[in-house]
Design goal:
By secondary structure, this protein is α/β, with parallel strands linked by helices. The protein has a domain of 191 residues: D-Amino Acid Oxidase, subunit A, domain 2 (D-Amino Acid Oxidase, Chain A, domain 2), CATH 3.30.9. It contains 12 helices and 21 strands. The strands form 4 sheets. Strands 4, 6, 7, 8, 15, 16, 17, 18 and 19 form a 9-stranded mixed sheet that branches. Strands 10-2-1-14-21-20 form a 6-stranded mixed sheet, with helices on one face. Helix 1 links the parallel strand 1 and strand 2. Helix 5 crosses helix 12. The chain is globular, with a radius of gyration of 21 Å. Bound molecules: flavin-adenine dinucleotide. The site of flavin-adenine dinucleotide has 43 residues, from helix 1, strand 2, strand 15, strand 19 and helix 12.
Length: 431
């Protein structure tokens, strides 16, 4: 390998899919990169997601009318959204911001900013996986969303209108056409929307492991430790303190998913990052063969054909980072799995999992340089789209860190949109 001892040096905090892609593009640019995580690469939220590469998801979660719909969802014990009573007070400030971000004007701007990130997403994944010799991890067989009827679909009409407005390719299907595409979808579902341009990752954990192994082989240093604080000298971040020692670098990138806001508190940042806990059930020998992700859109449950089996994933549960999983949320996946696929084998060997989606109230990530500290960079908060957006946001950030002209402007993703800059603001810092 060429001598890169003079190359710029970066520490990436977090070896989830976002941190790994960030490290990948920095290493491609010739930087010396250290990735620090207390766990194995990919074992955070990135381990168990639904694998969907949802490049048409230009609609934020908070759409106009969300205030009217939310109470009904919250009162339904089987509903896809759950805010347990003990967490109401903690969630309230985030929920208020969420509602504020759902005005028509805000939604138009958010949707545009999402589209900018989403448009090249599949191509980025394909190129990287090809580079690492694992092209087959990415499949582009489309995505099928199904509803029981028009009335159920009507609740999501705002999201579908936005997708159409942005020129997404959507085919409306009747029951027979749904069956033609996916014969094992049950009779409860009679209306579908097929998006042929969408993709999937057939094993998100293995994808993260492929990236980590490829990076290690190319000289990226993986450190197994927990970051306890970011260290600054004046207005420049210079390193990180970990449980077992400290590490110094010219540039520090925060990619710690749902834990990122906690890490930044010590520098004075107050970022409205909330975890939306999601669950999966992966069934080996399910008896169901799909060609693509099928989304039971009335229940917000994804069913994805994966290497380890059929994965049923979904639900949004507030409840913070500390509490353990709620068994009932997993049971719901089982219950509705059988409604979506009546042939589902009840004896299939199942593994269940809970992950922490890192969510900001406006459904956009925080991506780009810190204004208040030199040497500090952000790439976190990708919410429900973290797998989809990971490669694109990794590349965008790596470009910005090299001082290259940005492919798109990063202003919509800055933490300052929440008034979240470090409290004792000085002049903006050079990076
Ligand atoms: C049920 C479910 C289904 C989903 N389905 C999809 C989907 O189909 N498509 C899609 O695009 N997205 C999906 N997502 C969202 C996606 O999985 C996440 O947005 C994404 O994984 C976030 O990646 P990340 O790298 O930011 O975070 P993580 O994967 O959580 O990685 C963060 C890493 O930081 C490390 N870390 C945290 N604190 C510290 C510290 N102090 N020191 C050192 N290391 C630290 C953690 O150990 C972890 O490894 C889904 C999520 C869930 C829960």
């Amino acid at each position: 390998m060429s001598d890169d001892s003079q190359a710029p040096q970066a520490i990436v905090i977090g070896a989830g899919i976002v941190g790994l892609y960030t490290a990948y593009y920095l290493r491609q640019a010739g930087w010396r990169v250290q990735v620090i995580d207390h766990g194995e690469p990919g074992m955070g939220c990135s381990a168990g997601n639904a694998g969907a590469l949802s490049t048409a998801s230009v609609a934020p979660l908070g759409l106009p009318g969300v205030v009217r719909q939310a109470p009904r969802m919250l009162l339904d014990p089987d509903g896809p959204l759950s805010v347990p009573p003990h967490y109401w007070l903690a969630a309230a400030p985030w929920l208020l911001r969420f509602v504020r971000a759902s005005s028509p004007e805000q939604v138009a701007a958010i949707s545009h900013a999402l589209k900018q990130l989403l448009a090249p997403a599949i191509q980025h994944h394909q190129q990287a996986m090809q580079d690492l010799g694992e092209s087959a991890l990415i499949q582009t067989t489309g995505q099928l969303h199904v509803y029981p009827d028009e009335k159920a679909a009507e609740k999501d009409s705002g999201g579908w209108a936005l997708r159409r407005q942005h020129g997404m390719h959507i085919e409306k299907l009747n029951q027979e056409q749904i069956r033609d595409l996916e014969p094992q979808v049950g009779p409860h579902y009679r209306l579908g929307y097929f998006m042929p341009d969408q993709g999937m990752v057939v094993n998100p954990l293995r994808q993260a492991q492929v990236l980590a192994a490829g990076l290690a082989a190319r000289g990226v240093d993986f450190v197994r430790d927990r970051v306890t604080a970011l260290q600054a000298e004046g207005r420049r971040v210079t390193g990180v303190a970990c449980t077992q020692g400290t590490h110094k670098a010219d540039h520090i990138v925060v990619c710690a998913g749902a834990w990122s806001a906690g890490l930044l508190k010590g520098l004075g940042y107050r970022i409205p990052l909330e975890t939306q806990r999601g669950y999966h059930l992966t069934l080996a020998h399910s008896g169901i063969e799909l060609r693509r992700p099928v989304v039971a859109a009335d229940r917000k449950i994804f069913a994805t054909p994966m290497e380890p089996g059929l994965r049923l994933a979904g639900t949004v549960e507030f409840g913070g980072l500390e509490r353990g999983p709620t068994a009932r949320r997993v049971a719901l996946l089982q219950k509705y799995g059988k409604l979506i696929f009546p042939d589902l084998n009840p004896a299939a060997k199942a593994t269940s999992w809970m992950g922490h989606r890192p969510c900001l109230p406006d459904s956009l990530p925080i991506l780009g340089p810190a204004q208040s500290f030199g040497g500090l960079w952000f790439n976190f908060g990708h919410g429900h789209l973290g797998l989809t957006l990971s490669a694109v946001s990794g590349e965008l950030l790596a470009r910005a860190m090299q001082g290259l002209p940005p492919a798109i402007g990063l202003a919509p993703y800055a933490p300052e949109r929440f008034g979240a800059q470090a409290q004792a603001l000085g002049r903006p810092q050079s990076h």
